[in-house]
Amino acid sequence: MIRRRLSRTEVVQAAITFIDDNGVQALTMRRLGAALGVEAMALYRHVPGREELISAAVGELIDDLFNDDLMQEKPSSWEGYFQYVANAMRKLALTHPKMFPLMITQPPDAPWLRPPLRSIRWVDYFLTSLKGYGFSDDRAVSAYKAFTSFLLGDLLLQVSALGVSPVPLAENSSDEQDNENLGDYPTVQRLQSKLAENHSAREFDDGLDDLIERLRTAMDS
Asked: Could you confirm whether the keyword DNA-binding appears in this record (predicted)?
């Protein structure tokens, strides 16, 4: 195998691409090395092992969120700021649906951080921004908790709808739910087509609007 000099950034970016294509269950140092044209041992010069590599890949994606076009804008209101951050995170989740569950399952920078805005850098930026819009310390922290809860719940549903499990599964696992006899559940059977309708973009916008309205009411009280 031809030797080539790699950087840590190349290794981490290659891991993201590999997971996007194959899922995290398929990731091994040997397979990633083969994809990069190097022996697996060459990767250990940059990361101690597989788990550390996955954690680095998650951190890289979170940091990349700062480079999103929406994040280059400076909204005139905190409501606009929420819209920009939420939609940038939604774009990230739908661009990397197999990576998104790892943002929940990988340990954050600190135990009091909440996914998906799970890095100290991101939370400091978020809270500082809210302070700039006139939020008190307590209101900013409460908004961070409410906002991340909304993002986490809604975006997990959206990536799950794409066939991605919110919890990593074994490679050979299978979903047996499709074998359930719907004849035993007439209401579900009758409404199955409605349940299968995909209105995720509208529901995301509606949920975000509801959250903003609740926070606006709290700010005014």
From this structure: yes
Using alpha carbons, list the distances in angstroms from residue 95 to 13, 87, 115, 167, 218.
Answer: 14, 12, 17, 18, 34
CA 201: distance to chain centroid? 16
Instruction: Indicate the pTM of the whole model.
Output: 0.82
88-169+180-220: CATH architecture: Orthogonal Bundle (1.10)
The dihedral sign for the CA sequence 204, 206, 210, 212: positive
Which tens digit of pLDDT belongs to each residue from 24-64? 999 999 999 999 999 999 999 999 999 999 999 999 999 99
Domain residue extents for the chain: 88-169+180-220
Residue 72 sits at the vertex; the CA angle it makes with 126 and 69, to the nearest 5 degrees, is 110
Identity of the amino acid at 55: S
Would you give the DSSP letter of residue 184?
G
5 band by pLDDT with thresholds 50, 70 and 90: confident
Residue 58 near residue 116, CB atoms below 8 Å: no
Quick: pLDDT tens for 153-172.
Answer: 999 999 999 988 876 544 44
* 129 contacts 144 by C-beta, under 8 angstroms: no
Task: Identify the sign of the CA torsion 90, 95, 98, 99.
Answer: negative
For the chain, the 3-state helix, strand and coil shares in percent, each to the nearest 5, are 65, 0, 35
CA atoms within 13 A of residue 34's CA, in its CB half-sphere: 5
